[in-house]
Design goal:
280 residues, alpha/beta, Glycerol-3-phosphate (1)-acyltransferase, seven-stranded mixed beta sheet, 9 strands
Length: 280
Amino acid sequence: MAEETGTEEIQLIDVEKVFASKDARMLKRLPKFFIRYLKRIVHQDEINAFLIKNKGITGHEFLNRSIDYMGIKIEIKGLELIPKDGRLIFASNHPLGGIDGMCLVKTIHEQIRPNPKSVSNDLLMNVTPMRNFMIGVNKHGGNAKDQVAEMQRAFEGDDPIIFFASGLVSRRRWFTIEDVEWKSTFVKKAFLHERDVVPVFISGRVSGFFYRIANLRKFLGIRNNIEMLYLPNEMFKQKGLKLTILFGEPIPWKTFSSTKSPEAWAAYVKKLTYTMGKAL
């Protein structure tokens, strides 16, 4: 595939600007040493060095270079179950919080359908070279009108749509690592836009530190998902990882009838996905 290049000025990661765009008042209250700490745990310098080295590279080529830089190996199973045509939603678990999404986008783009769109936390939209693979969702406030319009266009179009249905990285409860409750949005969108749903299981886990921070935050009653700040650090811990992506048989959109609520159907697809994963 030809190398994709862009003419836009490179947009580097800037922790302070990201915070300012979300909550300028909170940024002013944060001490400088904490900002420096955040820059370190999000690997701001390393990410920016990579962006500078790959200036002008976007889309599929940037995705490949990122995965190669991390040394990630992908094993794919179940491709034979995916039809050659049709409008699809891929509903997946979310064990790694970043690299899993990149690998799933790459796999679908190369092996199934070009130009998949992943419904993503809009913080990830700051990685501009991959923006054409993403539909931004602000989980910490209302969605802007342009984001809502973009999502509507995506579902009305033919490109594959990817949902990490829990909206969060998998959590550890007792001795089990699993997504929290899957939100029903993908079920509603599948039925409304007549898109079959492909369940996807991705192997892997993040560090025990991340799970402990998440559980401590929940125990203390802190509502903001502060553990999300550590996801870039968790991503860099995944260097050299081999992960497996397992595709299940598509579920026809007509299945999601009124015999069950959308929430019940979402729970059904989640259970099916984790049952698939037990075979790995």
